[in-house]
Each structure stands twice: as C-alpha cells, then as structure tokens.
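Let us work through a complete example step by step.
Step 1: write down the sequence.
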Amino acid sequence: MNIVRKKRVTAQIRRWLYCLWALLLFTTVCLPVHAAESRTAETENSQEEEILAPYFIIKGTNEDPSLLEHFPLKATNVVSNINGVIAETYVTQTYVNEGSIPINASYVFPANSNVAVHGMKMIIGNEMITARIQEKEEAKKEYEEAKSEGKSASLMEQKRPNVFTMDVANIMPGDTVSIELHYTELINPRENIYEFVFPTVVGPRYAAPKESGNDTSVSGTSDDDSVSDGDAGSTASDHNTGAPKDSDDDWVSSPYLEDSTAIPGDYNITVNLSTGVPIAEITSKSHDIRIHQENASTAQITLADFDNYAGNRDFILKYRLAGEEVHSGLVLSQGQEENFFMLTVQPPERYEPDDIPPREYIFVLDVSGSMFGYPLDTAKDLLKSLVKDLRETDSFNLILFANESVLLSPESLPATAQNIKAATRLIDEQKGGGGTSLLPALENAITIPKQENSARSIVIITDGYISNDSEVISCITSNMNDASFFSFGIGTSVNDCLIKQIAGCGMGESFIVTDSEDAAESASNFRAYIEAPLLTDISVTYKGFDVYDVETSTPSILYASRPIILFGKWRGTPKGTVTVTGQAGGEDYRQEITVEETASDTESEALRYLWARTRLDRVTGYGNIRNDESVKKEVVELGIKYNMVTPYTSFIAVSEMIRNPEGDSADVDQPLPLPQRVSGLAVGGGYRAYSEPGMLLLMVPAAAAIIIRKRRERHGASND
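Step 2: predict the structure and record it as tokens.
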C-alpha cells in the first residue's frame, strides 16, 4: 500500500513540475516577443499605465526590418586630453544612412555626472555647423520646425546630469553626418590614484507604478524570502537635475539589443596624458590597452583590441604618479571678462583616533533582476567583506530589496559571530530577480530604531538603475542629520550620477566596484574611511587675494584621502596668501600657499567651465526647490553665459539648406547594448507583474520544494 501511495505522490509531483516548467517556457519565450510587439501601444499609454520600461529590439517586430539593418550610428571616436587634473574630451559620432529613405534618428548616451558640456558641431558633407546654446523649449521648437521644413538638424538635451539625448533630423540616403561634442571635467585623485572614466552606455532604467508597495518582511517569517518584481521609481519630477515637473521621461523606454549583441560600428578611445611629473603606473581593468610613452610624464593610451567591442562598459583608466604624493597648489586663469582659480589642498596623513565611538551599519543590498548573475555575486563578496570585519562594539542590520524588501531583523543586531553568520547565509540565498525599488528600502532603513550612543551609517549597494533619482536624494537630504550615507555602485556601467549624489548629499563617500578584486579593496577603503578622519574644523582664508563667488563648500570633517578642491573668481593683481587650517589628531594643522608664485594661464578656458559646472551643481541642489522659477532663471543664465548644456538649456544646430523637401522620413530609436555582465532580466516589456521573467525562474524550484514538502507532510500524516 505504501509503495502504491508513493508512486501516486511521485506522479502528482511530476505533473506539477511539468506545469511549472511549461509556465516558465511560455513566460521566457512568448512574453518577451509579445512585449516587443506591443511596445508601441505600451508607450502610447505610458501615462495611463504609469510605467515606462526599456524593451528589447527584435527584428521584424519592433521596427521596419530595413531600418534596423541600416543603423544611423556607425562609429564613435573619443579623444581625451588630460593635462594635470583637467580632462578635455572630444566625442565624434558618425552616422551613415545606407538605406533608401530619409531617417530621423534618436539615441541616448551617457557622460560623467560632473562634466561641463560646452561645445557641439554638426558636419554634413562639406558643411560644418557650430551649435548654439538656447533655452530648452526654444531649442526644441526650432528643431521641430527645421525637421518639418526638411532641413538637417541636431538637438542635444540633458535628461540627467549623466544622461543626454541626441536627435538628428533628415539624414538623407547616402548621407554621412558627424556630431562632435566637447566637454571638460576634473579628475580628483583618491589614495593618490587618479582615475579617468569614460561611460559608454546608459544602463536600463525602470519606472514602476506609483502604487508599488513598500512592505518589508523580516527574514525567517515566511516560507518565501524572495522579492517580487516591477521596477523602481516613478515618472515624478526630476528634482535632482532641476528638470521641470512636466519633463519628458520617454528616454527611460529606450530600446536595447538582446543579450550579447553589440551595436554595429567602430568604437575608438584615445587618451593623451600629460602630468608634468613622472608617471609611475598606467592600468585599465575594463579594457585591454596599448600604452605609448614618449617620456616620463606623457603617454598616449589606446584600445589594444578594436575587435573586442568597447561600447558596452565604462572605460576606466587609472594612473599613479611617481613620489606617491598629490601636491597642494593654486591654478589661475585670466580671461577678458572674468578670472578664475582652482585651489587644491592635500590633506594630512591619516591618523587613528584614540576613541572610535560604536557604530551602527545598515546595509541596503539590491537583489533585483538587473543584478542577476555577476553583479550580484560581486555585491555578495563586497557585503560579506564589509560585515565580517565589524567590531564587537558595532551593531548592524541588512535590507535586501527588489520591488519589496526583506529585513534581517526589526532592530539592529550586535556584530556577534552568530549574527554575522545569519546575515551571510541570507546574502548567499539571493539569486536576483524583480525590479529595483530603492526608495521604499531606504525609507525602511531610516525607520529602523536607532542605536543609542552610536554613529549610524547607511550603506547602499546597487547598480542604480532607477528612474526616480530625485525622490531618493530628497529622502536622504531629509535624514542627513540622522545618518551618513555611503554608496557602492556595482557593475561595469553603473548610474554614477545617483551613486555619487547619494554620498555627496549624505555626507559620505562613493565607491565603484566592478569585480571581486575591487570588492575587497573597496571594503578595506570603506573601513579606513569610517574609522580614521584626516582633518576636522577646516577653514580656508584669503589674505591680500581678492576672491569672490567661491564654489564647493569646505567640508567640516575630511575623511577620505583625497584633496579639497575649491573653484572661484578673483579680481585685480594675483597676490597675497591662501591659508588652510584645521585639527589633525588633536594637533593644529596649517597649509599656506603664496599667490604671487603662481603664473596665470591666458589660453585655457577649462577653469571657466569647471567653475560654471560647480555653480550649477550648487544652484540645482538636491531638493524640491530646484523647480522654483528663480532657480530655473539662474540655470538658464548660467547655461547661456557659459555656453553649457543644463537641465534648461540645449544645443541646437540647423542646416539652412532644405534637403528633404518631400518631408517624408522614418523615425528610428537607436538601440543600446546591454551593459557588460548585466542580465537580460534588466529589460522588460512594460508589464506590471513579472516584467523580469527571472522571477518565475526563481519560483520554479521554490514551488517544487513546497509541493514536495506538502506531499510529504500529508503522506506522514496518513501513515500516522
């Protein structure tokens, strides 16, 4: 009898498993195709659905196949000239319309979040047009008029500080069109290592329905610790960039190529490095590079393997100077109307305070679909490194989030071996799936009862692939007096703007982690950062040097081993002294720089743009006030005066020649490659539920286990 019963149970389990696998097969094969086919309707009804999502390009379903075979973007060429700590970068993108009809192309591209984009040119045949900076709405209107008149035109807009869009109208059959961008940025060393990053692709962003829940379950209270899908954010106003409340977030629904598919065309990167002092080491973990060094202080770096597609991950170049020292100093720039300066102050050596207070750490870990696989494995390595070395006087907690959150404990736990083991076990169980609802997880972290007589640090570990950046930043600024916020960006093409802003407004530090080796190093740097301040009670004074409009506020406490950098303007004759004072290890600290010993540069305008970009960051700030009309007016004035793209100013270039008198043209959304090692689960078709099919993949073994357990319980009961 028992044998017969066992056979029946086994047969029933087998039938259940067949059903589950059939459901999985339908979801992973049929639904993505259906999602692609229904993309147009989804986009048109995005306001009604309250969701925007990227989608996969599938030939024959998304666009006219003939258009997909003739992508307008054919080549990208990047040249960056680094002189000291200032990088001037030129990006040239070339389109060739190899089809038989006129094309209007639209695509999304990234930049570092601190760049000042201040130049754009459009070249069509032998005609070169220098773009003009205009107020955003005026530029958009002029572009649409030129497009309807049959003129070739290009429009560049900022959507986020690190996300831009380019629209190019009326590319005729056989046309070769080149767009050249020029921007300036500062390279700020950390631990005496300089790092230049060129982002190549925008990672997918999700905007989930506003009604997405923010329920938090406590680990161990449910049979199913997995989290559901539907991704982060909403289409709320983009406060963190100063964008207007009715800004268009359609760029979030950008198309992506399927896994492991590269966009056709060449991708070349050249860095010309000039440091003024001998270069000790040049490395790149992101790409294979070729280094040509003419002398000790200059080098040219290029990609070694052009066949290994470079445009699906950030290009990361690190270099170290001989002497292991970042020098303090003053740089002066003299212009026709305004003079600018940059002050660099190297902090003292790190010291160990006599009494480190107890600390409370709340780790907030992203386990969504975009983290599936390699990114989540790297994040696990990082988090386990952070947790295992906590001191016995410390306490900690852990929140895992996708669309919902899983909490290790209602209250933070002492950092005992047993509690750390429980946290490690919970981390190891995560597979990755679902959306990226960072904001509810962050709110849950803040509401955890605070430990008395301890300093709280909230550590966020994510790729940052969300669309509601502004709400996250607003939450942090509202609670910055209760905790310090640190951020670890995981992956090869993270949302660096969000990662940096979390730390910037949260009085913490940001780290980018691309692999397990970085994880161990970053965990070590984080512990050193937290436990050993370098300088306190910092003050900068100017004597005999007439300065004004100084940007970048001086920190009250300096933890990180990176210089203090200030930008400002000056009048009259460059003379006098700049003095930096503070406390280091209980002793007085003082640095004095003589202005007369600094020569003024009358050629470069780099400091002009860096000052303007720093002022823009301060004006737009991190709060809702950025949408104030007075703020908009100041941002527009900054953009127009300094010829710079901002949330309210755009570049527009128009050819006066009518090249498409018929006016018929096809619109093509240029698809992006998925960032390297980012799973296809990061891209969905706009579904509210299970837009990332990996959730069902994770549910199958869990459901099977539940079925088997229930059957065994019934079988045991019948035997009793």
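Step 3: interpret the result. The mean pLDDT is 79.
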